[in-house]
Amino acid sequence: MTPEAIVLVKTSYAAVAPRPGLLAARFYHELFIAAPGLRPLFPGDLTALQGHFEAALSLVIRNLDEISALREPLRDLGAQHVHWGARPEDYLTAREALVAAIRGLAPVWDDALEGSWRRAITGIIVPMLEGAAVQTALVAEELAADQAK
Ligand code: HEM
Asked: What is the pTM of this model?
């Protein structure tokens, strides 16, 4: 992302996340409209998860200029998501749900801002997918080793 796009996203984030929980609530709302089948993977009460999600998102947005420093924790988060049942295609659904949630709360919006947000979120989901892929390969190796015994 260009430094200008990073500034756009950071400024926009400050405007859409003034009330704790609001952005995450809209995100899950959009996610379950787009993919109702994902709802059973999540706990019935989303309150705690909304807090975790917003904490993670705000940490990433604050550090967008050095996102590579967050690659390892994001890979770990992606590996955890394999156990929770997230599939690669779900990340694209989640990205669009998050863009829709942000668009719904943003006081100003245009194509350039939408593109910048999509790039920022892609920068989060790529390391998560990498972590998921490594986790999946490890499970496959363990299974293969078990079978060889
Ligand atoms: C932008 C991408 C995503 C981010 C930043 C994200 C972030 C998070 C965070 C921070 C947590 C809480 C972790 C914890 O409590 O330790 C979480 C939990 C979870 N996420 Fe995601 N997530 C993303 C995408 C997805 C997708 C695509 C799915 C698809 C199914 C998903 C399903 C879940 C589930 C099921 C949980 C656990 C709920 C529980 O506590 O049982 N996430 N996510």
From this structure: 0.94
